[in-house]
């Protein structure tokens, strides 16, 4: 019998699968605000992209990672409902809320195919229109065998990897340079994941109000603007 994986390194195969952009959870169709940032001119090369990614990681990346870790720590419907409400409160943009639930629905579909079972079935029954993506990620990660710290790492990584990949397509950036910027950002991704896991632990003990609520108003504005465009490369 194989030994149990160490805490923080649980189920490495599942971790790699969930973090893989080819996992069919719908993220490839979304830019995480990068398309609007590029059109505005604020992101126009590798350096401005790196600044955008760092800011995104410290705000919505931290919030999403903490929500995901908290969901991974307790798969009880009442607790997940509290987290879903917390995600709503931390997402001022209606367009972003809609995208988050759409991505949650797609992730849950992929998760149920990969790791079928009653926990994910119950999640689908409770939120037929989709729970927030971060909440779903936490539950799927836990079902796949990941602990909250590992789930926080996946969420933090996703918050920058998707927009970085979008910038390659939007700006024609050198993918080697984009990968280099992501590599330089990796220590901060790890730090944000650690802060998120710590906050999730506090929330599990004392309540969801202790979860981070870092804001990124420009991302909210970008989301609302982007949702009205008739011609766009990405869904958000």
The top-level CATH class is Mainly Alpha
Helix content: 55-70%
Count of discrete domains: 1
The proportion of residues in beta strands is under 5%
Distance between the first and last residues' Cα: 45 Å
Indicate the radius of gyration in whole angstroms.
Answer: 17 Å
Provide the structure class: mainly alpha
- Poorly predicted ranges (pLDDT <50, ≥5 residues)? 1-9
Number of strands: 0
The CATH H-level homologous superfamily: Urease accessory protein UreF
What letter string, H or E per element, gives the SSE order? HHHHHHHHHH
Average pLDDT number: 93
Stated plainly, the CATH topology is called Urease accessory protein UreF
Number of helices: 10
Q: What summary fits the major beta sheet?
A: none
Shape: globular
Please name the CATH architecture.
Orthogonal Bundle
Helix and strand arrangement:
Layout (H helix, E strand, L loop, with lengths): L11 H8 L14 H7 L5 H28 L3 H13 L4 H21 L3 H9 L6 H11 L4 H24 L3 H32 L10 H11 L9
Describe this structure as you would to a colleague.
This protein is mainly alpha-helical. The protein has one domain: Urease accessory protein UreF, CATH 1.10.4190. It has ten helices and no strands. Helix 3 runs antiparallel to helix 8 and helix 7 packs across helix 8.
Write a brief structural summary.
The chain is mainly α and 236 residues long. It has a single domain (43-207, 214-224), classed as Urease accessory protein UreF, CATH 1.10.4190.10.
Keywords:
single chain, 236 residues, mainly alpha
